Amino acid sequence: MLFIKRIMAPRIQLAKAAWRWVETVKPEEIKQEHIELAYRVNLPACKRGTCRRNCKGNPNCLVGIGEQAWLGEIDENAFHNIDDPNSERRDKNTFVGLTNLGATCYVNTFLQVWFHNLELRRRLYQCHNSRAQEHNIESDYEPQSICEHLQYLFALLQNSNRKYIDPSGLVKALGLDTGQQQDAQEFSKLFLSLLEDTLSKQKNPNLQNVIQRQFCGQFSYVTVCNQCGRSSALPSRFYELELNIQGHKNLTECVTEFLKEENLDGDNRYYCESCQGKQNATRRIKLHSLPPTLNLQLMRFVFDRQTGHKKKLNTFISFPEQLDMGPFLEGNQDQNCVYELSAVLIHRGISAYSGHYIAHVKDARTGDWYKFNDEEIEKMEGKKLQLGIEEDIAETVKSQTRKPKCSKGYHCSRNAYMLVYKVQEAETSDSSRNIVEVPAFLQRLVDQDNHKFEEWCSEMADMRKQSVDKGKAKHEEVKELYELLPAMDGGPYEFIPLEWLKKWLDDSTATKEIDNSLFLCCHNKLHPDKVGDSKRVSLQAAELLYKRYGGGPRLDNSSMCRVCVGQRCRVLRLKNQLNEDYKEVSNLIKRTLSGEGYWVGKASLRSWRQLALEQLEEDEHETKHSNGQTNGQGPHTNNSKELSEVNEDEMRTFNEDIVCSHGNLSIAETERKLVSSEVWTKLRAYFPKAPEFTQNQESCQQCLTLEQEEKDNEAVSKMMALDQKNQLLNLFHEKNRPILTKWPQDTDVLYIVPLYFVDEWKKFIRRPTKSSPVSNVGNALLLCPHGGFMFTYDSLINGDAQHVALLWPSEWEVISRLFIVDQPISIHCFKQTTPSGPTAEYTTQPDLCWECREGFLFQQQRDLREYTQATIYIRKVVEDKMMMKEVAPEMNASSSEAEEEKEDQPKMDGEKDPDFSQVSSSSCIVNKVVEPHEIVLCFFQSQDSAKRLKLNDNSIAKLAVAAPVSNSTKLGGIRRSTRHRKLRGEKALIVSANQTLKELKIQIMHAFSVAPFDQNLSINGKCLTDDSATLGSLGVIPESIICLKADEPIADYAAMDDVYQVRMPEEGFKGTGLLGH
Asked: Could you give the CA distance from residue 895 to residue 890 in angstroms, rounded to a whole number?
């Protein structure tokens, strides 16, 4: 048989070895050699290279405490973590990058493209800027308008000394969320539109149309009637051409499809004014003029109707370096139609909602190509555009499509989403056309920023030098002192905390003074348990360390505590003796008792060994200082342990289980046992402070008296409950109860009490010894602050009766006699005979308070229209029947399901459960459950915010009337649970009253994977069609059930674009400066 011996950790082995001598040495026999063994003074020191890490149990081990970093030659760069400030300096003949503020790479790419549009930059510099011209350079310049921000940003990009600049001023002015990536193409459109609007307000007429002159072209939609041949043209202008790339291989195919002829027939026929009717026709786009800068948007991000999200098309598209648009232009043959590629914008990544944007831009002055990747700028070799690395990023998706070979002068990309072409200009010797000078007023601001940058570089260089000088001094100090640390055999020494030595050798933390206060025992000497967390160093080294860093109290060889060692010796010897004593006590208690005995708690007797062990461990640690720690456990740790043990009902003191609350012997004789004096003597040795009760000790007289009184009170309560039950037997058993809809023939008055009172009374009747007797009816809860009744007869038969109980006059007489009644409430029936037949009129006493009733109803209706975070249910139906198969689970927190809840009571025979009937588009509203002890507002929000008002004596003004109940609720006080139970195919959504129907459809799209344009929604038979209307205005209230019927998908691209613009995963630019906010 193979025996595996468990190997103890070295630290535990050292701790056990330090106290092994206690087996043969009594506390009174302890000598100095035993104290030195306990403090491990004579353990051999470890040599360098023998320990991988420091031996914490050995106070003489000084290896692995951080000295490795200091012993030997050290590069001065290791003394600081400050980068060379010159690494932030712009290299000669390079461009300036832009900082990515989190997810603003899409902004940076367009800013670099627009900066390299020399004409746009030149015109922006000409914009009037009185704020910059009058700025005092002693303060920071803060642009206000978009033009001012762009001016300053372009000037910095042109002449800054920095390697990259921070565009946060412009981003903040636009109100963009720096942590959310947005649609880059939409940003381009909106920003140019905003810039066009801003420039149009300039006084200089040459600046008002800069955007149009640079980016705007013209085309027209031409429709030709097939019947009469009449042609009609609708002129329009464009700032970019949006080209579909799906199914195409090159740019020419994309442009051709954009301009191709479209047939208008069937339902899509054209109304011809000449024919005065709808006719088949053809429609196409005619290009009339092109701008100097031609922006071509490749539509890579399209809406996927199956998932309800945008997706990226990774289609390879080839495009030329030189593009001839002449074949596509109609008329105006004098225009130069040859364009040169000037920028390619790339999206790296496979998802439409993530990835990274970069730009490849051609320098108009030199013809060199540069890759702009936020802060990093790379110049392409040989003045050629290189897209290879960017195309490799998308290879994470195993695509079957290989990159096609490109002809000379062409490039191929499946990540390019925008191409920028500039019209080819005739070669000229005038080099000034490609030179744009920064105006003096802007250059002054750039010089101010450059001056700040140079000051920062100088400051960083000084800090680097200071850190190096400090590090070199520390290096010399450590090399000197570390050699002096080991204590010589027989020489003087002191104890220093290990953690302090580690921090002294850690250059990243400031060295504080030496603190030994946590290592002291209650005798102000070194605690034996703390020797493992300290190191024994030579007196010479200690003198130098205390001289340089201060601290204390100092612990030398006289600081080893003889008292603590003696106490520990006694405890360890008792712990070794405990097992033998346990066996002996177990045998002794089995013998027949003879002579005087002592009472011991049975629970104490069962667990006395564990209690003794805990007591010995406490004695073992009781010498620790009040603000110190033992074995690494602080006072908070010990307190938490005690609390956990108390919470687990564990015994803390021996024999406390037979001590009553008065400190006397408990009256529970079954919980204690008589033991012999011999047993008690052994137990007493371990528990000297335990309570002692001899065999003749009497039980606590106070407890005996209280026990008798409790029995008497229980008997009285049982008699009272039986008497009340016999007098109100029908009320208790819910038999022969009056019902308002069928007014009893033998009485014209019924009495009303709160149902809460009846429920509490029934609890007392069922368990009179466990529940308190009811003394007060509390009818004031059903009255308004003016003393008027809050219910009408009609409201009671329509649902309010679920919170009250109806009583017969005879029952009211009994209740008036048995309980305190603050205010009688009754309902009277006056029957009359009229020519049209018998009629009945109902009144209440006290009378109804119309003012409070109308105020409550108004508040109730307003609450139903102004809710937030409320639950509604969406049921998907197929052919007016419930769809019973499971549907896709929710995809986000906004459409999380409410938890399933159980019914309070089973349904009565013959009752129909509306939750399980087949539901058509006109589903009814289902109400929440009302607990027996609560009156609840008819305003059910999500579980986190449901407004519930519990009844109490002070809640008169808080009375709330419940909503109309379903047919399953019986009048007269018997309530039925109407808690909503979801069916398969149903989802619970969290909505607010001010949310639009369109936003709800987006939530439904994520819950059911049904596109908004395929959703037909209805509530109570009414179709919901106005997407811009709020749910509150459409009558959608909390707990409503909305029926969803899904159409078969149709190719409605206009609707797809509409949903695409909503972009649930992206909030878009709603609320930003790009939309005028």
From this structure: 6
DSSP states along 656-716: GGGB-TTSSB-S-GGGEEEEEHHHHHHHHHH-TTS---BTTPPPPHHHHHHHHHHHHHHHH
- The one-character DSSP state at 629 is -
- Work out the pLDDT band at 112, boundaries 50, 70, 90: very high
Name the nearest CA neighbour of 320 among 349, 345, 340, 346. Answer: 340
Cβ atoms 690, 684 nearer than 8 A: yes
What is the residue-averaged pLDDT of the chain?
A: 78
Eight-class DSSP state of 648: T
User: What secondary structure does DSSP assign to 928-983, as a single string?
Assistant: PP--TTEEE-S----TTT--EEE--TT-GGG--PPPPP-TTSPSSS--------PP
Q: Are strands 293-298 and 241-243 parallel, antiparallel or unpaired?
A: parallel
* Phi and psi at residue 262, to the nearest 5°: -120, 135
- CA 413 to chain CA centroid, Å, is 39
Residue 627 has pLDDT above 60, yes or no: no
Rounded distance between C-alpha atoms, residue 882 and residue 982, angstroms: 12
In single-letter form, the type of residue at position 21 comes to W
Q: How far apart are CA 794 and CA 819, in angstroms?
A: 29
Rounded to an integer, the average pLDDT of 853-870 is 79
Task: Give the pLDDT of residue 509.
Answer: 66
Catalytic residues: 105, 356
E strand segments, 4-147: 97-98
- Find out whether 778 and 727 touch, Cβ atoms under 8 Å: no
Rounded (10°) CA dihedral 524, 530, 535, 536: 50
Query: Would you say the C-alpha torsion 884, 888, 890, 895 has a positive or negative sign?
Result: negative
Cβ atoms of 580 and 588 closer than 8 Å: no
Residue whose C-alpha is closest to residue 124's, from 95, 145, 98: 145
Rounded CA-CA distance 260/252 in Å is 12
Portion of the chain with pLDDT greater than 70, in percent = 79
According to the model, what pLDDT value does residue 569 have?
A: 86
Q: At 930, is the pLDDT very low, low, confident or very high (cuts 50, 70, 90)? A: very low
> CA-CA distance, 1038 to 699, in Å (whole number)?
63
Locus of tokens 């509490």: 760
**3-state secondary structure (DSSP) of residue 201:** coil
Q: pLDDT (tens digit, 9 = 90+) per residue, 351-403?
A: 777 788 999 999 988 889 999 999 999 988 877 888 766 554 444 444 446 77
- H helices present in 178-325, as ranges: 184-199, 205-208, 210-215, 251-259
Positive or negative, the CA dihedral 498, 504, 505, 506 is positive
- Burial of 522: CB neighbours in 10 Å, binned 0-12, 13-18, 19+: middle
Measured between alpha carbons, how far is residue 415 from residues 314, 346, 755 in Å? 7, 5, 70
Tokens found for residue 637 = 């740790």
Q: Which has the closest alpha carbon to 964: 803, 755, 736?
A: 803
Contact 1044, 1008 (CB under 8 A): yes
Structure tokens at 71: 């012993």
The strand pairing partners of 514, in sequence order, are: 551
